[in-house]
Amino acid sequence: xxxxxxxxxxxxxxxxxxxxxxxxxxxxxxxxxxxxxxxxxxxxxxxxxxxxxxxxxxxxxxxxxxxxxxxxxxxxxxxxxxx
Length: 83
Fold this sequence. Notes:
Radius of gyration: 25 Å
Oligomer: single chain
Order of helices and strands: HHH
Strand content: under 5%
Number of helices: 3
């Protein structure tokens, strides 16, 4: 059996969701295309990841040349794990 939800609670929930949607739409911009924003974001993430991968390759080569570890290069360059 499912617990019944009163009509008033359903209407209150619907109203709350509509207010939240309106707020988010205002923040985004009424005439902005969410799909276009997501596609642009994904494209930028790909560029970031490619740059980060290339950087890690160079750091690995530098570690080899200096006969040290990648971790030591990161420490020497003050690179954090989240970079």
